[in-house]
Amino acid sequence: MVLAAAHAGPVGQSRTWRETGAVTPVPILLYHSVSDNPPAWIRRYCVAPDVFSRQLELIGDWGATALSVAEYARSLEDGRPLPERSVVITFDDGLADFQEHALPALRRVALAATLFVTTGFLEGLPEGRGVSRPPGPWLDAAALLDLRAQGIEIGAHTHSHPQLDTLPAEAARVEIARSKEILENLLSARVPSFAYPYGYHGPVVHRLAQESGFASACAVKNALSFTADDRFALARLTVRADTTLAGLGAWLDGRGAPLAPRRERARTRAWRVFRRGRAVVRRPLR
Predict the structure, then answer these.
(1) pLDDT (tens digit, 0 to 9) for every residue of the chain, 286 residues total?
(2) DSSP E strands: which ranges in the chain?
(3) In this structure, how many other beta carbons lie within 10 angstroms of the beta carbon of residue 8?
(4) Spatial contact of 240 and 45, defined as CB atoms under 8 Å apart
């Protein structure tokens, strides 16, 4: 598929990707927390419950069809046409406020969502807590079973939320595979969707996610996904505490963010090299 850039229309107005007909942009929204009183570490990425409800109402008024990540990835793999005005709503990490605030709001407007869970952050997990778990409260196994029963897709987000692309390959493989195994045992169901912590990934991490049996993986990129996006580097748009309704509306219309790049940018590779070097320096000697 040849991508055509958005171009100026009459009187210099910018046309959206949807209007050019070249590709179909799909906003994949990335949330972390919905709360009036979030822990300090997540406050920048937390949306108040009333704001979240207004955002979902905007999505509903836009006429959206909300897909789970698994549904979206299957459409990309099979080349099937997407529903008109497709959107994907995702949450990362597994904070308990998802069940308290996000789920009721999603149910009110009948929108699907995918929750990516860091298994080492779960409460009461027999397999043990991740060493880097920040303050919660966090979901537990019973909550995940309830969420899945109510139609929420549960995806994996590693066990301890590391920067996967800075780890030795075997350590990264264990993080990815362990989270999938824990969730599948807990849910008694296949878990096909994965999300990279911090959005950090790369060719080796892509391969490890595929070898672990996932059908797709979400990155971040703060860009619009589209119908020829890489299933193992799906672009998402981060919804922050200061994201406005106008900004969200622009994303829904295929504006306000770039289309996901087909190839990894040079600056992204350079940033990975820097972080790997820093991780090696900080790694304890054995």
Answers:
(1) 222 222 222 223 333 434 444 579 999 999 999 999 999 999 999 999 999 999 999 999 999 999 999 999 999 999 989 999 999 999 999 999 999 999 999 999 999 999 999 999 999 987 666 668 999 999 999 999 999 999 999 999 999 999 999 999 999 999 999 999 999 999 999 999 999 999 999 999 999 999 999 999 999 999 999 999 999 999 999 999 999 999 999 999 999 999 998 766 655 555 455 465 565 545 554 4
(2) 25-26, 28-31, 33-34, 46-47, 65-67, 86-93, 114-117, 153-156, 193-195, 216-221, 225-226, 234-238
(3) 9
(4) yes
The C-alpha angle 253, 223, 102, rounded to 5 degrees, equals: 75
Q: Find residue 95's DSSP bridge partners.
A: 138
Distance CA 131, CA 126 (A): 14
The whole-angstrom separation of Cα 68 and Cα 63 is: 16
**Angle at the Cα of 234 (from 232 to 240), degrees rounded to 5?**
140
Helices 245-252 and 49-61, axial angle in degrees (round to 10):
30
Alpha-carbon span 223 to 54, nearest angstrom: 22
Report the residue count for the chain.
Answer: 286
Helix (H) or strand (E) holding 268: helix 266-282
CATH number of 18-282: 3.20.20.370
Q: Quote the CA–CA distance of 134 and 121 in Å, as a whole number.
A: 8
Q: Assess contact for 28 and 50: CB atoms under 8 A.
A: no
**Six token digits for residue 192:** 């096909």
